[in-house]
Prior knowledge:
alpha+beta
Amino acid sequence: MHMLSDGHVADAEGTMFDASVAVGVALPAGECRAPTLASRRQAVERAIRLMRERYPDPLSLDDMARAAFFSRYHFNRMFRHLTGLPPGRFLAAIRLEAAKRLLLTTRFSITAVCFEVGYASVGTFTSHFTEYVGIPPHRLRHVPREMLERVLELAWRRPPAAPREPGSGPAATLRLAAPADSSGPVFVGLFATPVPRGRPLACAVAEGPGDVSLPLPEGGCWAFAVRIPVCGDPATALLCESAPRGRAGPLGPGRAAAVELALRPPELMDPPVLIALPFLLADRLEEGHAPVSAPLVA
C-alpha cells in the first residue's frame, strides 16, 4: 500500500484493539506504560494534523509515517491500535467530512466538491459518500430545511419511548453516561464497522443517560452514540462536528453484552461522524409518530 488517493486502501476495514498494545508486540492490557502510550498518541495526533491540513493532496502512508516519526510498518499498526481504523480509512473519512461541509455551506457543484476534497473521480466520490453518509451528495444538499427542523424538534420535545425489549435473541445493554452539565436526547446505534457509516443494524433514541437495550445482529458490531444537537441550524445536526459522542466494541456475535458507553467531547483522534443523523432520526421517530421524512435514499 503506497498512495492513498481517492480514499482507497489495501487494508481491510480496521478492527478495534486495546490502546495498550505495543507497536509490534502485543502486551496484556494495563502493561503499557503511560509515558509510552502518551508518546504514541502524540505521534498519531501529528499524523492526523497532517491529514487535516493536506487532505486534498495524494498523501502516502510514508508521508503520514514521517509526520509521526515512525517507520511505515510501525506507524500503520500504531494508528490502527489507537483509532480503530487504518490511516487510509481515516483520511477518507476526513475528506468526506470536508465534502459534507462544502455541500452544506457553499454553492460549489458536486463535481467541484469532489475535486476540492482530493477525489479524482466523481463516480468514486459519489459511491463512497453514499456508502458512508447514507445518502448521495445531491440528496444531502437539497433536503428540505423544514423536514430537518421537524425531526430535531421531535427528538427534543417528544422523545420516543424506550425501545422494545428484544425477543429471544441476545441483546446489547448500552449504559449511557454523560457529563453532569450535558442534557438532551441521544442517538444510539449498532453498526457493522468500527466507525458508523450508512444505516445502523439497530438503533434507538434515548432521553438521556441510562440503559438502552438493542438486539444484537448475527455478526459482530460496534456501538456508537451521539448527542442530538439542540433545535437550530439543521446543518449542525448534519455535520455533528462538535457533538459529544462515544463508541465501544466489538460486541458479540451471539452473546448478550452490557457495555459502558460514555459520551464525551470529540477529540483529535476521533474519526469524523459521517452518518446523516437527521435521516436516521427520522426513520426511528416515524416508528412512533407521524411521518417526518422522505425515504432515506432517493
